[in-house]
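Allow me, if you will, to draw on your knowledge of protein folds for a short while. The matter concerns a single protein, recorded as an amino acid sequence and a row of backbone structure tokens. Kindly check, if you would, that the fold set down in the tokens agrees with what the sequence suggests. You will find the record immediately after this paragraph.
***
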Amino acid sequence: MRFSTSEYSPPTEKNLDNMYMHLTNYSINKSSEHYHNCDDENRGSKRSIKYLKMWMASHNYNFATLWNSIIDIVNKTIIIAEPYLLHTYRMARPGTTSAASSSVCFEVLGMDIFY
């Protein structure tokens, strides 16, 4: 789990260019003066799911509810994207007709979820 390096505020004309506020990508945030690289999974800009569970429990938040919501978001995103991805892959590989030759895949590298 990665944290953005600036506190989130809803997008406005004044803060829309602040990538550190609206994205959690490591490749972007590593250049922020507020990025903290740390080997300890309980500190820094990158933390473990175990840490999140402990933090939420200590603040009386329900981790299971959050986790189920995240699963729902990811599943719905993939379902919505599937027809577009299938069309794109078929266009990239015209003329393939056998099941083996039409087999392609993709990888979800990450999703930014603000809570």
